[in-house]
Amino acid sequence: MNRREALFSLGSMAAAGGLASRAGAAELKGFPKQTAMSADHLPTPARSGGGFQVLKSETDQKTVKAVFDRLIPADDFGPSASEAGCLEFLDDQLSGDYGAGKALYLEAPLSPENEEAIMGAPQFLSTPRERYETGLKALEAYAQETDGAAFHALSPDRIDEILTGLEAGEIDLGEGVNGQAFFELMLQNVREGYLADPLYGGNRDMAGWKMIGFPGARYDYRPYVDRRNEDLGLTPVSLIPND
Amino acid sequence: MAKWIKIAGGVVVIAAVGAGVWAWDSLNTGRSKVAGDSVTLAEFTSEDAEAVERGEYVMRMGDCAACHTREAGEFAGGYEIATPFGTLVSSNITPDAETGIGGMTEKDFFNALRQGIGQHGMLYPAMPYTAYAKFTDRDMHDLWAYMSTVEPVQNDIDENGGMPFPFNIRLAMAGWDMLFFDNSGFEPVASESDAWNRGKYIVDGGGHCAACHSPRNALGAEVASAYLQGGNIGDWYAPDLTPNPHVGLGGSSAEDIATYLKTGTDGVAVAAGPMAEAVEHSLQYLTDEDALAVGTYLTSLPASDNPAPKAASLAETDMARLTDVYEVNCSACHGLDGEGIEGMVPAFSANHGLLGDPTNMIHAMLKGTRAAHTHDAQTAAGMPSFAWKMDDTQVADILTYVRNSFGNGAEAVSPEAVAEMREALDAREPLRAATN
Amino acid sequence: MANERPKADVVIVGLGWAGSVMAEELTRAGLNVVAIERGAWRDTSTDFPPAVDPDELRWHTRRELLQPMSVETTTFRNKTGQQAAPVRNWNAFQFGWNVGGAGTHWAGMSWRFLPWDFEVATQTAERYGQERLDSLMAEGLQLQDWGVSYEEMAPYYDRFERIAGTSGKAGNLNGQKIKGGNVFEGPREREYPTPQLKDTNWMSMYRQTTEGMGYNPFTIPAGNISQAYVNPLGVTMGPCTYCGFCDFHGCGNFSKSSPQACILPALMRRSNFTVLTETEVLHAVKHEDGKTVKGVKFVTRDGEEGFQPADVVCITAYQMDNVRLMLLSGIGEQYDPATQQGTIGRNYSYQTCSSVTGFFSGAKMNPFIGGGALGVQIDDFNGDNFDHSDLDFIGGAGIMGYSTNGRPIANMNGIRPGNKRWGSEWKEAYARDYQEVANIFCQGTSMPTRDAYLSLDPTYKDRHGQPLLRLTFDWNRNDASMIDYTTKKAVEIMREAGGEDIMVDNQAEASWNPYKQHSSHTIGGLVMGSNPATSALNPYLQSWDCHNVFSVGASAFPNNGGYNPTLTVGALAVRAARAIHETYINNPGPLVEA
């Protein structure tokens, strides 16, 4: 706001524009005048309500829950993955840029053997969302075939056995699904959900942070840096406190 | 809104009165006789380099570019000023004969600047001719010389096309002038020092400080009895400039004030909002001597009797909670002890400007703001907006905490005041995380 | 050409550290400068203030400040003959994607290279004999001096440190060694702009341990500054708060050296400076005679092409893109490993690293107290600071005990060996080990080889249809021996400090690939030197082939020091910019006769 406006205006005026918008290239001369947060750098909380966007099938939800709650079970160290909101976290992530693989280079050709050999791990042209869609179906099919039951109906020990087999690359989930890579993807995502800021839907009540003693979205440890080997007793805080 | 209607009604009445009263003193252009009346600005380019240079200084002091320079080019006008009465557009003051002020003679120029009598009729007092009236003839001649060297720009502007009836009747301003305009030049006070007189000349004239820092009455005129004692200018507050020890400049030396004017900060406070712009575009260009003169004058004023703010009482549990909120949100820049970062981020400790009217603090929290960029202090650091993160109560709480910590004591900020400002500024609502 | 912009004196391609340092120098000298930056405008209070910055998932895990691979990536193979594949996912490389470039999200370690790093070839021959150098060269190393000495670089290092506000303690003031600083550093003429940072718990343990072992620990010079500071441009910085959200993040309180915190506030307000954001330079356009360029062709975010004419073109993108832009512009000759002809793409190299992890039962390390450059290092085994007479390698590594962050996702595998990464076993382990783990990092030199180089990929293209850059690289024997040696020293230190269950990750033990590495300190490909047959740029960073093209970046390093590259890049930027405005602009032509 210019002071001339201030001078003669008794009402209010929107602040000066500065950088027009992110649409199109901008020629900047002078320092942009904007003072409010850039819209595209505001945090994007997980959607509230409205149900699952990607994990729409009930079977998929149950399969993910069965896997996630063995990867992070409820115990003395904290709630299970699903209790901590990791399903909601995953669904929200998969419904956005991450799930769409927006950052990835997905151009063909992809020669799987060559790329795996060179990069030390299998490479994909599919997005994380697509990998979940096919991976979860493959897991369910695997359970039906080997155990004659739905994956989520298997005993915890049996699920652990399958997960251990996937992790070791010893279980074949069929064509188009790399079981070991899918295990790694799920393990990565469930732990992300357990340890990311609660604003993304997981880490409910900051359970993951409390488990390890991480104080969260703080920004000033000057009062503590000189203290040696002490439990600092800091309460964790989320980027967007809910209270 | 109710307030606006009342004011609007008042202006209508004055318009009627004004139309009937012609030969009022405020319209007496006798002071302009010293100016030439034969050559127009378009026909003239000063060759007196010293006069031009002095004139540029007068232009800086008067901050003409702040309103008259926009995308169309230097001094080509086009700045839209929203007023409760409609939208005004700043005029093209380049020497362009058709669309600028090229058709004006020096006498016309004097009349417009010092008396608000323009080439298309009366000027609206958004143009601070009420202060420019104090300009000496010499400064006016110099300014005229400077304007003659400005590049003409063709940019046709309909200054009051955005004003609805009856506010588009310029003659209405004659009535306003009759009531509020003092058509007299600057008179030095013999008993005071040269510095003091120079300071007063800048404060009351080109600097037009009272335009913001004095309160205004319902018709938008400055209240003389509360001269420089602080003015609410909508969504910013221009604080008390008298040496009031609680909320004013008490404790500031003339040197502190000079430093502030030249750099936007005195090491404790940091200019923000409209004051940052005033420093950036105008005040930093003052000579050291002139900046000090302003300080000399302001420190000589009688202290206002604005009372000491009463400290709010915060429960111990609230204090403990808010100490943590401060550490999470504020201390990285404003310091664990409210010490700020010298020359860049305002301190909360020993910063009187924070203890009075909380408008600026609320505004900064909701919309963010930016310090002045000056030759000596280049950073012009931004204060981030918290509108997206904190709700009205959270904003009010942390401001109350700051106003009652680090040796401070001041009235609590109410969530209602924050809500009102949030609406007035069209600041966004806070984001809320999923509660599933 | 349609959409031709008014001519500029200088066009800057990429507005990161190098670009903004150069633009500042050049505009201050009165030149009219246009910068073209592929990323968007970003500033502290509007884009990464403290209320937005401490978000690990967004900035570190999803890397939202970094240039995504979908915009441009590299292809990679270990050796010629292999089919290179594109790097599809997030990997070691951390390129900038905004005004400020990687300088916005870097960690802040602010090292001067050692005098030895600039003259590896000459000094190896001088100290160990010409035969030793010859045998290294015969083995495949491609050692060559930089054409500039540390002594010549010192004033430019000093200038950049002053702009950046670097914190630290001098260890060599005008030749006088000072305990507590890095006694191995080249002589500096004055102290650091701001004092060294404080020690965390782990840093103080590391300092005590290494001191007790007879080494010379010192606090790493940092672009996380220790107290408020006003730089020579009149820009103020704030004090680091040890927030632990530093590398990959912007800095919310003006305490990390960056173009935003140090240069842009002054630069952006100069009337002779313009920046086109979200605009990508496709390539430079040569004059008919091929000896100079006319300007650069660019494309806006909306796909509109345009041309920016200029008298001087400065290519100041990240190392990879500097090389790629030269190749896409047809400036100079592509290096061929079979013949060692050509200079563009030559002497590509990486940084040879390892890490050593230990656990301290019952400790409270409070790892969340951190800074991107927060650490204590010993340089006793870096560069040529130790006698290599009886060793089978040259070079070395800085060995640091660091406290950069305690971000929970990034550290979730930081558990004692033998524990599963999932289930209650993981939860129990992480709940305990988060506070008990400590890390030592060996950051080593890398020597160039004949076989490692950069070229355009024949198959894969970017979003504009231009070929991607292809990287051909693997570890060489010398560097693998070096890191093996220094890693053992690090293990000894960890053991002496009391660390248990020690884990070693020696990156050179297996073939290089971009997913296994963590460092973005990729160098070379457009190296400086005094011989046009073996370097693309002369010692003023001026192209030997087109004299109005200058390029600054780690791409100009003929070999990598055991340090982070940024300070050297910044110093080279000052040097190049001064050569332009003090000499070149008045008398265009080669600044050095070939």
Automatic annotation (TrEMBL), chain A:
Database matches in InterPro entries: Gluconate_2DH_su3
A Pfam family annotated for this UniProt entry: Gluconate_2-dh3
Name of the molecule in the record: Gluconate 2-dehydrogenase gamma chain
UniProtKB/TrEMBL annotation, chain B:
Any Pfam family the entry gives: Cytochrome_CBB3
Record's cofactor remark: Binds 3 heme c groups covalently per subunit.
Keyword Coiled coil: no
Chain residues that bind heme c 1: C64, C67, H68
A molecular function (GO) term: heme binding
Domain Cytochrome c stretches: 50-151, 194-302, 317-406
Keyword Transport: yes
Keywords (A to Z) from UniProt: Cell membrane, Electron transport, Heme, Iron, Membrane, Metal-binding, Repeat, Respiratory chain, Signal, Transport
Gene Ontology cellular component annotations, sorted alphabetically: plasma membrane
Compartment list: Cell membrane
Required co-factors: heme c
Residues involved in heme c 3 binding: C330, C333, H334
Residues noted as binding heme c 2 in the record, renumbered to the chain: C209, C212, H213
PANTHER family: ALCOHOL DEHYDROGENASE CYTOCHROME C SUBUNIT, BLL4482 PROTEIN-RELATED
Protein's name in the database: Cytochrome c, mono-and diheme variants
Lineage of the organism: Bacteria, Pseudomonadati, Pseudomonadota, Alphaproteobacteria, Rhodobacterales
Automatic annotation (TrEMBL), chain C:
GO molecular function, a single term: oxidoreductase activity, acting on CH-OH group of donors
Glucose-methanol-choline oxidoreductase C-terminal domain location: 448-573
Domain spans labelled Glucose-methanol-choline oxidoreductase N-terminal: 208-350
Oxidoreductase among keywords: yes
SUPFAM superfamilies linked: FAD-linked reductases, C-terminal domain, FAD/NAD(P)-binding domain
Flavoprotein is among the record's keywords: yes
InterPro entries hit by this protein: FAD/NAD-bd_sf, GMC_OxRdtase_N, GMC_OxRtase_C
Pfam families in the record: GMC_oxred_C, GMC_oxred_N
Keywords on record: FAD, Flavoprotein, Oxidoreductase
Family per similarity comment: Belongs to the GMC oxidoreductase family.
Descriptive protein name: Gluconate 2-dehydrogenase alpha chain
